[in-house]
Amino acid sequence: MVLRPGERHYRDRSHRRLGPWCSPTGSPAPLSREPGCGEGSWILVCRLLVPTQVSLLSMEEDIDTRKINNSFLRDHSYATEADIISTVEFNHTGELLATGDKGGRVVIFQREQESKNQVHRRGEYNVYSTFQSHEPEFDYLKSLEIEEKINKIRWLPQQNAAYFLLSTNDKTVKLWKVSERDKRPEGYNLKDEEGRLRDPATITTLRVPVLRPMDLMVEATPRRVFANAHTYHINSISVNSDYETYMSADDLRINLWNFEITNQSFNIVDIKPANMEELTEVITAAEFHPHHCNTFVYSSSKGTIRLCDMRASALCDRHTKFFEEPEDPSNRSFFSEIISSISDVKFSHSGRYIMTRDYLTVKVWDLNMENRPIETYQVHDYLRSKLCSLYENDCIFDKFECVWNGSDSVIMTGSYNNFFRMFDRNTKRDVTLEASRENSKPRAILKPRKVCVGGKRRKDEISVDSLDFSKKILHTAWHPSENIIAVAATNNLYIFQDKVN
């Protein structure tokens, strides 16, 4: 069953879902990790699957019941292309977690509230709302299909009881409002109970409307649609710290939007050459500074980062700072330009550092030092000898994301074989964990994984030749203040919590 914009989802008072989602079965599986990324061990709090678009209908049920309760969860081995998760994002408090998929759907999870009877379940997340954000479109002028895939989701800080988020596909950004209702008005004078207008001649008495309690209802409604501003595919959106504007970036341009104006945007970066044959690089990611509303960065396919200040010029074609690491001539190869392309750029929460992810490494840059990064972490250096085969199967063009923890002391990013890596900036230790159902037996400890490059392979190691490149962790998210992480693996969402002993 496909959920449409504005569909309503009913819950009981404890926020448990009454439909159309059902919870996946299976016991949580504890995971262990090496020291260096905090104390304790990582626990698999819950594993959730994106719902399929197909419904199973039982002929014995009445039609109203079938509309609500008969969508089902498809196992990852039967996942369609539309079920693959394409973005993951916590809101500013960490109480909500949103995912978008290639089918254009947004699924929002809400954190389980702690109670006296369930003290240890604070890390669990239940489905809060699901809605269809984007639909497939067709550009008749260019004979071009526009996919419904959700490229990015960004939350706005909560100002009232409702939640707001931005979601984008390749061409269109939408602002969604997610709100709750647990009361309904009754006793209209000009309408009957079914909402139809009454004949004024039949109205002889005046009634005072009252609010009656009802089942808690969550509904998602599109408040703004920002379209027709990008010729190329949107790869990034970022909310400004003034919370009045945001920017959207495609391959060659970055536009600045006001949340209240949908028919006009300001072009703040344009790197399109007069002759497209002279094009040498494209924009790969962009983000606003977390505290300074005039400052933003964007990365390029050449492995460079540009810091721009909108106070200097309305069109920020001239950067304020330029970050680039000189290439080692001894490592020069046919694939150097491809693997140096930056797939993600993130400001630290403090605003002092920038983190970038290229194909093989994660780098941390100090805003005050442009000539080289202050830290470089090898994510999967054992793949350097496999670049030729990775080029042939197009994996070398995969775009991995990277995230900071709440204190900027730990970095997380993904790899292949459903591995994801953590790097502790203080102790310089790192750990490799695997988000896999097969290796997460109930109440069993999952040891950190190690990859063997050559020579003798130990019992607990995995050979680089046996890695599954179809299983990749591209999208991850870290709770803004606690050690809770979300990892997307195909159509599976794994949520881990750092257990403090």
Automatic annotation (TrEMBL):
<feature type="region of interest" description="Disordered">
    <location>
        <begin position="1"/>
        <end position="33"/>
    </location>
</feature>
<protein>
    <recommendedName>
        <fullName>Serine/threonine-protein phosphatase 2A 55 kDa regulatory subunit B</fullName>
    </recommendedName>
</protein>
<keyword id="KW-0853">WD repeat</keyword>
<feature type="compositionally biased region" description="Basic and acidic residues">
    <location>
        <begin position="1"/>
        <end position="10"/>
    </location>
</feature>
<keyword id="KW-0677">Repeat</keyword>
<dbReference type="InterPro" id="IPR001680">
    <property type="entry name" value="WD40_rpt"/>
</dbReference>
<dbReference type="InterPro" id="IPR036322">
    <property type="entry name" value="WD40_repeat_dom_sf"/>
</dbReference>
<dbReference type="InterPro" id="IPR000009">
    <property type="entry name" value="PP2A_PR55"/>
</dbReference>
<dbReference type="InterPro" id="IPR018067">
    <property type="entry name" value="PP2A_PR55_CS"/>
</dbReference>
<comment type="similarity">
    <text>Belongs to the phosphatase 2A regulatory subunit B family.</text>
</comment>
<dbReference type="GO" id="GO:0019888">
    <property type="term" value="F:protein phosphatase regulator activity"/>
</dbReference>
<dbReference type="GO" id="GO:0000159">
    <property type="term" value="C:protein phosphatase type 2A complex"/>
</dbReference>
<dbReference type="InterPro" id="IPR015943">
    <property type="entry name" value="WD40/YVTN_repeat-like_dom_sf"/>
</dbReference>
